[in-house]
């Protein structure tokens, strides 16, 4: 016998735990845990940062039998009465209290129901039926009496119940500690309070309240309980977390646990929360008694005022406060630096810094002086503080345009030929007569357009609008041509101007009139009539063309009936008809099938042709497909080649072209490249899937260890030293700043050379040196004298003269005025009053401009030994009408007053006052103004809006402005508001009298009956619903096919599928005979019979070898040797949370072992997991052969687990028949049910002798 047991469960992790088995611990953050850089969301949270709450209530029936309320990171299930559990998944079994007084109790979700025995009634079967006592009212010598007018039974001590039919096992009540005795069929049970356990409630269960926190396991002991805590937790209730768990204090200290965190006490020489930092301070770090303070990668001594140095070992250079009261002194090893307060400057902060408030704007440079400051402006700015912007600085106006500077912007005055903000765009409307005096010209950017006058049209208004006066009247639409117009008339009107009503005297008998091109009329006949006057019956109404054939009529005059009326002949007509057959048919009514297979190339030589009614089919050879076997099947479409190999298609087959590193029919085999000695003699090879790698010997590199590495490749020479490779070593050539084998030793230039000048101090640095200059010198080598006069050091009424190593302050007592100049003291120092022949501050410059040697519009400028003349065009005062002259090199520009324009401000500006509306541009023109309108306006002042400005009419449609809108006159074949909708019905695409419907991008045809297809070109074979039994008809080219529903087959779904019900048992194959609508079963090995229902007894033949016994089994047999090894039990975890156990079971012991093993698996999964909810989802037990009655017992267990009402009905039998001790304390009721169910299966096997 074969059997298998499978248990499925779900586990929800407790707080602080995560992972598929809830074993990983991560307390603290309630939402997430970060381990090795990876973020894990805890139960109830999701999202990239685990900040989104999981709404468990979105899962259907999450709270089984209760109401679900979502909370942040969790959920709450509100259970109805008699239902309990974290997810309301457990139902309290009221039947355990035997409430039905001898009746049968059936448990239900949240309640129960009593099925009373004959003679009793009521909710709990508590009343006798009827209103009188009978001899059989009370069983077992019970006495029937009356109470409140109703019969009741008084039972003796051994029986109880409404009718005294229940054996009273509780009469010898042995339940302790006030527990409740519950009577049963063959005994009693004690209903214990929550804090008691045991058969008689004699044992106290101290763990019932789950006192152990943080998933600790509670264990009952004689005097109470103890908690077995998980790693990281401690305390009587596992309430304290051991924060020192896995904390090493960097192996430099000892960890002590605290109430909320750990504390590391570090060893000498270390510090930090984890003792991870080195402590640099020691007893000798600073001169006693000064304090040492830890700093980055070192220490710092806290020196008192006046003491300095790394170890507080010298006096401070700031001791005498050299920076005064306007600066802060900073000591260094060679002196001090002054950090001046705001508003002060100088080496010792003794000078006022007038530049402190940065009064110079726009990036200007401030120059400080004794009493004031000056600003050096950047190009494009001017003013005392460089506050004004010269927007014209970069000459933004092109094509000789004049730039006018304003406070926040500039404007360009353009020549008449140019427009735009910078005069960059040609004024096309000025340079060309674009609109030929038939319209207004307006320009947008570089594109000029015309707004035509009435009666003109075209891009340049050169085409006369012949339709302007509506020559076609109300019965036609006018279309312009180059020199004339054309009227498209309404259907019943004709004539050049649509002035003639052509149908006035029409004689259309069975149709309606429509004008023709020759000013006459035509008749459009109704269905069933033809002829010039629609008076001839259509013979096609009496001719049926079969199989998609189309009837065509031929009409001709009937000369035999023509009569003469006056000067006119009255001619009558007759008609005949014939069938134009569709493909595959011929004959008068298209009823004869054409045999297409008579042609040799019907199936292209790649298949066998089969003629059918109205068509044919091809049975294609291997490797070909298609209606005519015209397509070669590409076997490469399924990507049969592995590892990026190239597939080559062949006829009915394929081949694979393998890439490097792979081999085999489908390139599925890895090539061992190492067998070809690919790493040479300096490396070892390691094969990998689809590749290989070489491990090289020292000094050898490369893909195949083929490159020898030179000694210089590791760059041993430092500080830009040059490396030279010599055999197996190297040497370094250093520059003049470093020395040593690796050029890593600094040369002290201050000892080998004397670079610093003027008494400077040389200080060596790594790779260079610095010169510390005396106060009077500066520069890299202190070679430049400092101009002390820049800081205005001299007092009032004196002038500063710079000298080497200092400066002099002079007044008239010391200051020399040359060449007869007279000195006068002033507030800014001595001033020289020079004679006419001399100029400059001290009268040292010869005045060559004395006699005015320069011409008109020139200014004379003195040079050292001569003079120069500078040209200034504004000297001629060229700007009229109070215009301002602005010079630009040798040119000038006139900035005119309001109301004037022109190069010299000589022209009146008629555009003053912004006469043009709607952003139109005003132009002066012939003693007046002209408005160049923007793209959507026209009129003298741009006051009229042009709805046609964007050319809304597409496809060469002509746009006309109307009141508050525009009108598009479309070309033939186009329609719609903007002529954008193509009239796809214009060419009458619908065949066979189909009606054309024009759409946005295509058309559709409404076909008459019997026809379908896009253009009504296909005959509708599905019209008469040929498919039976709700089959779906699919129309084909020459016939139809049916998609049959389940249970039906055949061309028209008229054959019943007898195999649908699966009559063949034991995996037998059902073969259907469509012709007879019958079936036969093809049985597989081990079974025979009409429906494969009988097991074949293979043991009747000699099938087993010697020294073995044959045992017949369902669908096969087994040979058992006298001595054989038992097979090991197969237990595996099929996926996270699913444990599966299976075994060939032959003896009671093996089944017992399986049951015990399954139970231990459940216990181990529960004990090892840190779970808060343990929820089983399924239990299955199967036994073969299927005729074994154990199968039905197992079905009871399976259905009983999912229906607790059924499960509870066998619960008492389970406990009484198995003699099972109570479940472990950590088992949930769900888990206890499963374990007891497994033991019930075992008990059933034992009773039936099937183990």
From TrEMBL:
SUPFAM superfamilies: EGF/Laminin, Growth factor receptor domain. It comes from the Eukaryota. Residues 53-89, 91-126, 129-165, 166-202, 203-239, 240-276, 277-313, 314-350, 351-387, 388-424, 425-462, 463-499, 593-630, 632-668, 670-706, 708-744, 746-783, 808-844, 870-906, 907-943, 944-980, 981-1017, 1018-1054, 1055-1093 form the EGF-like domain. InterPro entries: EGF (IPR000742), EGF-like_Ca-bd_dom (IPR001881), EGF-like_CS (IPR013032), EGF-type_Asp/Asn_hydroxyl_site (IPR000152), EGF_Ca-bd_CS (IPR018097), Growth_fac_rcpt_cys_sf (IPR009030), NOTCH1_EGF-like (IPR049883). Disulfide bonds join 79-88, 95-105, 116-125, 155-164, 192-201, 229-238, 266-275, 303-312, 340-349, 377-386, 414-423, 452-461, 489-498, 620-629, 658-667, 696-705, 734-743, 773-782, 834-843, 896-905, 933-942, 970-979, 1007-1016, 1044-1053, 1064-1081, 1083-1092. Keywords: Disulfide bond, EGF-like domain, Glycoprotein, Repeat, Signal. Pfam families: EGF (PF00008), EGF_CA (PF07645), EGF_TEN (PF25024), hEGF (PF12661). The keyword Signal applies. GO terms for molecular function: calcium ion binding. This is EGF-like domain-containing protein. It comes from Magallana gigas. The lineage of its organism: Eukaryota, Metazoa, Spiralia, Lophotrochozoa, Mollusca.
């Amino acid at each position: 016998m074969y059997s298998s047991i499978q248990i499925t469960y779900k586990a929800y992790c407790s707080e602080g735990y995560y992972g598929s088995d809830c074993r990983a611990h991560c307390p603290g953050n309630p939402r997430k845990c970060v381990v090795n850089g990876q973020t894990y969301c805890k139960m109830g949270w999701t999202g990239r940062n685990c900040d989104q709450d999981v709404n468990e209530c979105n899962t259907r029936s999450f709270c089984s039998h209760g109401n679900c309320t979502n909370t942040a990171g969790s959920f709450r299930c509100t259970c109805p009465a008699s239902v309990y559990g974290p997810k309301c998944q457990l139902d309290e079994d009221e039947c355990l209290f035997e409430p039905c007084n001898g009746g049968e109790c059936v448990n239900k979700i949240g309640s129960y129901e009593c099925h009373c025995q004959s003679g009793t009634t009521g909710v709990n079967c508590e009343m006798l039926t009827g209103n009188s006592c009978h001899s059989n009212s009370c069983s077992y010598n019970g006495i029937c009496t009356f109470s409140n007018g109703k019969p009741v039974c008084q039972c003796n001590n051994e029986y109880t119940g409404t009718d005294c039919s229940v054996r009273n096992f509780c009469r010898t009540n042995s339940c302790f500690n006030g527990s409740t005795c519950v009577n049963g069929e063959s005994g009693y049970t004690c209903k214990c309070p929550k804090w008691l356990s045991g058969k008689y409630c004699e044992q106290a269960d101290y763990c019932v309240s789950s006192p152990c926190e943080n998933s600790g396991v509670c264990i009952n002991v004689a005097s109470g309980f103890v908690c077995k805590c998980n790693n990281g937790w401690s305390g009587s209730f596992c309430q304290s977390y051991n924060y020192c768990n896995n904390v090493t204090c960097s192996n430099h200290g000892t960890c002590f646990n605290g109430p909320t965190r750990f504390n590391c006490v570090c060893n000498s020489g270390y510090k930090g929360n984890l003792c991870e930092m080195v402590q640099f301070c020691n007893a000798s770090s600073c001169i006693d008694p000064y304090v040492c303070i830890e700093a980055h990668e070192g220490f710092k001594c806290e020196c008192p005022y006046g003491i300095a140095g790394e170890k507080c070992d010298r006096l401070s250079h700031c001791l005498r406060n050299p920076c005064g009261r306007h600066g802060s002194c900073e000591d260094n090893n060679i002196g001090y630096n002054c950090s001046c307060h705001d508003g002060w400057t100088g080496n010792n902060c003794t000078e006022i810094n007038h530049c402190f408030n940065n009064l110079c704007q726009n990036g200007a440079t401030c120059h400080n002086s004794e009493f004031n400051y000056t600003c050096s402006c950047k190009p494009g700015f001017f003013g005392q503080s460089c506050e004004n912007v010269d927007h014209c600085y970069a000459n933004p106006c092109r094509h000789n345009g004049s730039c006018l500077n304003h406070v926040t912007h500039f404007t360009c005055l353009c020549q008449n030929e140019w427009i735009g903000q910078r005069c960059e765009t040609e004024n096309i409307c000025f340079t060309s007569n674009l609109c030929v005096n038939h319209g207004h010209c307006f320009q947008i950017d570089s594109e000029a357009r015309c707004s035509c006058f009435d009666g003109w049209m075209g891009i340049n208004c050169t085409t006369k609008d012949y339709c302007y006066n509506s020559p076609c009247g109300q019965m036609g639409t006018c279309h312009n041509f180059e020199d004339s117009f054309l009227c498209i008339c309404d259907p019943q009107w004709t004539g050049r101007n649509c002035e003639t009503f052509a149908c006035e005297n029409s004689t259309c008998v069975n149709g309606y009139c429509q004008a023709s091109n020759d000013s006459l009329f035509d008749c459009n006949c109704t269905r069933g009539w033809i002829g010039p006057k629609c008076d001839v019956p259509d013979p096609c109404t009496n001719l049926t063309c079969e199989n998609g054939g189309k009837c065509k009529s031929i009409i001709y005059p009937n000369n035999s009936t023509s009569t003469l009326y006056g000067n006119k002949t009255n001619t009558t007509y007759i008609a005949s008809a014939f069938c134009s057959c569709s493909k595959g048919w011929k004959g008068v009514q298209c009823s004869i099938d054409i045999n297409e297979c008579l042609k040799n190339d019907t199936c292209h030589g790649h298949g066998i042709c089969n003629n059918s009614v109205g068509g044919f089919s091809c049975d294609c050879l291997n490797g070909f497909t298609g209606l005519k076997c015209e397509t070669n099947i590409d076997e490469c479409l399924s990507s049969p080649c592995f590892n990026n190999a190239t597939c080559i298609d062949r006829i009915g087959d394929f081949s694979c072209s393998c890439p490097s590193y792979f081999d085999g029919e489908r390139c599925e085999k890895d090539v061992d490249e190492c067998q070809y000695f690919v790493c040479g003699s300096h490396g070892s090879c390691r094969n990998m899937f689809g590749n290989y790698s070489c491990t090289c010997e020292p000094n050898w590199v490369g893909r195949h260890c083929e490159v020898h590495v030179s000694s210089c490749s590791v760059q041993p020479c430092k500080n830009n030293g040059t490396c030279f490779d010599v055999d197996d070593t190297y040497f370094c050539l250093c520059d003049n700043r470093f020395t040593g084998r690796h050029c890593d030793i600094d040369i002290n230039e201050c000892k080998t050379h004397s670079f610093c000048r003027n008494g400077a101090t040389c200080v060596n640095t790594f790779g260079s040196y610095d010169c510390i200059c005396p106060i009077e010198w500066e520069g890299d080598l202190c070679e430049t004298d400092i101009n002390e006069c820049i800081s205005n050091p001299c007092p009032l009424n004196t002038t500063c003269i710079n000298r080497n190593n200092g400066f002099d302050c002079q007044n008239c007592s010391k200051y020399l005025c040359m060449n007869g100049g007279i000195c006068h003291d002033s507030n800014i120092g001595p001033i020289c009053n020079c004679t006419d022949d001399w100029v400059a501050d001290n009268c040292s410059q010869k005045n060559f401009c004395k006699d005015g040697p320069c011409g008109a519009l020139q200014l004379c400028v003195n040079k050292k030994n001569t003079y120069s003349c500078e040209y200034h065009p504004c000297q001629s005062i060229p700007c009229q009408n109070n215009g301002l002259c602005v010079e630009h090199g040798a040119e000038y520009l006139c900035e005119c007053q309001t109301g004037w324009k022109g190069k010299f401000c000589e022209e009146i500006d008629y555009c003053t006052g912004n006469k043009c509306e709607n952003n139109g541009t005003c132009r002066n023109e012939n003693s007046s103004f002209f408005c160049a309108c923007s793209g959507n306006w026209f009129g003298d002042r741009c006051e009229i809006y042009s709805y046609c400005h964007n050319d809304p009419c597409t496809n060469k449609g002509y746009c006309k402005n109307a009141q508050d809108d525009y009108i598009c006159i479309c070309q033939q074949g186009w329609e719609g508001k903007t002529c954008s909708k193509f009239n796809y019905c214009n060419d009458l695409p619908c065949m066979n009298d189909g009606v054309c419907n024009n759409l946005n991008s295509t058309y559709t045809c409404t076909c008459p009956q019997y026809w379908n297809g896009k253009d009504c070109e296909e005959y509708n074979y599905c019209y008469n619903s040929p498919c039976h039994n709700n089959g779906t008809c699919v129309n084909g080219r020459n016939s139809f096919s049916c998609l049959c529903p389940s249970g039906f087959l055949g061309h028209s779904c008229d054959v019943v599928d007898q195999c649908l019900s699966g009559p063949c048992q034991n995996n037998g194959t059902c073969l259907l005979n469509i012709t007879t609508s019958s079936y036969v079963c093809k049985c597989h090995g081990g079974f025979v019979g009409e429906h494969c229902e009988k097991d074949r007894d293979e043991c009747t033949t000699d099938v087993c070898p010697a020294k073995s016994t044959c045992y017949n089994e369902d669908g096969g047999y087994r040979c058992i040797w006298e001595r054989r090894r038992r097979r090991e039990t197969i237990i595996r975890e099929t996926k996270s949370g699913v444990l599966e156990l299976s075994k060939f079971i032959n003896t009671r012991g093996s089944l017992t072992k399986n049951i015990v093993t399954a139970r231990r698996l459940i216990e181990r999964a529960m004990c090892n997991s840190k779970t808060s909810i343990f929820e089983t989802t399924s239990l299955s037990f199967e036994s073969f052969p299927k005729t074994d009655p154990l199968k039905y017992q197992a079905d009871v267990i399976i259905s009983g687990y999912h229906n607790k009402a059924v499960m509870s009905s066998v619960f008492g039998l389970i406990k009484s028949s198995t003699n099972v001790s109570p479940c472990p304390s950590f088992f949930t009721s769900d888990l206890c049910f499963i374990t007891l169910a497994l033991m019930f299966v075992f008990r059933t096997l034992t009773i039936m002798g099937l183990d």
